[in-house]
Amino acid sequence: MAEPRVAWPVKFVALVLIWGSSFLLMKVGLETLEPVQISALRIVTGAAVVTALLALGGGRLPRGARVWGHLVVCGFLLATLPFTLFALSETRISSALAGIGNAATPIATVLATLAILPGARVTGRRLVAVGVGFVGVVTIMQPWTTTQGPDLVGFAMALAGGASYGVGWTYNRRFLAGADLGGLAMPAATLLTGLALMAPTALGWALTRPEGLGALWAHGTARDVPGWLPLACVLVLGVVGTGFAYVLQFDVVRGAGPVVGSTITYLIPVVSVLLGVLVLHERLGVWQVVGFTVVLAAAWVVNRNPRSPEAVVTRARERSARV
């Protein structure tokens, strides 16, 4: 078999940067666009890219009413809900804090596994890590002060967005493990069902606005950036961060294996924090840095190399179409 033109470490670094920068892109997009507009445009462009790549590769979408019924749930938990929550959260908190909320994914996966997967066993190490992660979250929120902590509603939305990924992939394992969802069929179907759910959501939101349906394409005036930049950032978020990133993830898993691929989960918040601080000049308080470190360590422990072959296969599939 021919060697790939680009080595997997290069693709790995690119993927971490792409997904880690998504929070910065949303923050800039909010200069002129509303959260619902960002979520809708992200799903539309991402679905178009992945579906086109699926067709060009000779793949096909899954079949069967039962499969599509479960895919609707996956589309909600893996696309519509988290995309919208993260964009909403950044109207109240920094992009760095929103990125930290993404670290809730592996922790939520453990809890969802206990609740959704019958007979699933979770090691004591991971349960302890979940508890430690919760302590880290509380530290970030600083409930002992009302003036220095982050906006609790905004940070809660970011945590819920990250947790939604964990619940969504666990649901996928429970109900779609036997479905024919190889290649790009899973991400394409997930984004298409997410789009089907996002359409009435966006329409309903527009009807509550004074502009009516015109709110769907309305935009504000940029204050701190060039006027074209917010829309360009959201298009990059959809085309690159939600579309082409899937292909990179498949290549990384094929080239390096699922263990290395899984480390992307806890590197994303690191990149989001660095970009937020260095590019957007955001600031994190001392307790937020301490809490972030604790959450990151807990996510790493939860996400460590699974020991059983079955777990390796399952985790490879989970990481192969991460949004």
Summary of the model, kept short:
This protein is mostly helical and 323 residues long. It has helices spanning 8-20, 22-29, 35-56, 65-89, 95-101, 104-116, 124-141, 152-175, 185-207, 229-256, 258-262, 264-278, 286-302, 309-319.
Q: What is the fold's blueprint, element by element?
A:
Elements: H1 8-20, H2 22-29, H3 35-56, H4 65-89, H5 95-101, H6 104-116, H7 124-141, H8 152-175, H9 185-207, H10 229-256, H11 258-262, H12 264-278, H13 286-302, H14 309-319
Helix pairs in contact: 1-10, 1-12, 2-5, 2-10, 3-4, 3-9, 3-10, 4-8, 4-9, 5-8, 5-12, 6-7, 6-8, 6-13, 7-13
Can you describe what's shown?
There is one protein chain. This protein has 323 residues and is mostly helical. It has one domain (8-319). 71% of the residues lie in helices and 0% in strands. It has helices spanning 8-20, 22-29, 35-56, 65-89, 95-101, 104-116, 124-141, 152-175, 185-207, 229-256, 258-262, 264-278, 286-302, 309-319. Helix 5 runs antiparallel to helix 12. The protein is globular, with a radius of gyration of 19 Å. It starts with 7 loop residues before the first helix and ends with a helix. 49% of the residues are buried.
